[in-house]
Write the structure tokens for this entry.
Amino acid sequence: MNKTSNQKAWFFVLPVLILVAFNAIIPLMTVVNYSVQETFGDNTFFWAGVIWFQEVLHSERFHAALGRQLLFTFTILAIEIPLGVAIALAMPRKGIWVSVCLILMALPLLIPWNVVGAIWNIFALPDIGLLGYTINSLGIDYNFTRQPVSAWITLVVMDVWHWTSLVVLLAYAGLVSIPDAYYQAAKTDGARPLAIFRYIQLPKLKRVLTIAVLLRFMDSFNIYTEPFVLTGGGPGNSTTLLSIDLVKVALGQFDLGPAAAMSLIYFLIILLFSWIFYTLMMRNEEQ
Amino acid sequence: MRIKWLVPTLYILFLMLPIYGLLSMSFKTTNEILGSFTLWPQDFTLENYRKIFTDPTWYMGYVNSLIYVSINTVISVCAALPAAYAFSRYRFMGDKHLFFWLLTNRMAPAAVFALPFFQLYSAVGLFDTHIAVALAHTLFNIPLAVWILEGFMSGVPRQLDETAYVDGYSFGHFFIKIFIPTIAAGIGVACFFCFMFSWVELLLAKTLTAVNAKPIAATMTRTASTSGYELGLLAAAGTLTIVPGAFVIYFVRNYIAKGFALGRV
């Protein structure tokens, strides 16, 4: 759309600017401040330069947490995106069932995150939970509080349960926006379902799927509450993702310097990935 | 393609099973829960719910959550409306950078901000108030509201604005009388999202409150850790946190799909 140039538009943006700046810039400066200083706990601070950044970048613990985080994020993206599209394709297009499906599917998105963790904790308890009890009575040894592999699977399934609906809703919105004429033209040409998907539906889904990947990427990288309630990062450190590790360092051990340096590195990683996605999305939009 | 309906049905079944587990546990007595696994409550009880509705530390948690979520929704949407209009209608210096900067705040991990937020809101004397949580949540809700509203507004042709000006409307009059009703659906969707993300967030809400504005989710984590295994009570409290969300979805059900696409499909 062609927009007119108007510098006074800044006044419209001002309230947003003030509110977000108060919440973003002051805390961010505090973090930057901590990241370059050393303290001995008596509220006196010394200039420390970049030692915290070096320490964090060379620490095995950070590498391990980052590795687990990347593994987690790419696993859930690889499951949720195709699954979400498949479900959206199979959903009814009109009638009462559309509303029923949408309401039921959106439900997990509106449950507080710690309750999501609690639901799955209760659901997967090996001796008294519906899922844990069923799996164990099938003769499979399953205990997510003791076996790292079980904990991982539970965590991934929980995230799929929690967020696949977001992808479904996005993909569904993209699909219903395709005019009927497209399908009729495809029918006249005798196109197979696979060809319809490849040449009509997928191109239309491109934009909403970019949003889906962007949102799921950002949010899964920030995930804290659900795994914290479900496994507490355990057993051992096996499900300690970046945020959990960060909170352990910052609030648990009160190591402000390393925690702040870690926050900034963490934030920069997310920023970099998101910037790439954003640029791609904007380019799509301009076409 | 007769079996097509099976896919969504199975998926919804998968979604409902854990919720059923929670619901059935909330009607059980502690003895039954810890005794052995039962598929449905053998000894049906409403004791857990009675406790929540009579004990102020429990029900005030819901009230606190609803208060700060409502304040947050109002602030976020009111501030986002003019900004979204500016982004959708005008070009101005630094507009694209500003838009991306807003989005970066949506990306910021809450864990990074927990400690500085605590210090900031303590310093300005707002610690443990509803307004503190409401303001803190604008960090990720305002960018989202701007993003959604901008999408919906860009779908409204510019001719609408121009015709109104030709007809002699002032900007304020046009914006309130004509433009806002035109994008009412978008505003509804934006409210829904602000409500949703403020309602489900716990880390910041917990960090910024102690007693007076403590959210229900924090009351639950405290119960889970201190009083050992009151699973039935926890399950009942969890079940009740789903109710407001279900209500809100029902109101926006017709716009929900478009809303999740941020108004742009």
About this structure: DSSP finds 14 helices and one strand in chain B. Chain B has two domains: 1-45, 55-260. Chain B touches chain A through 101 residues (CB under 8 Å).
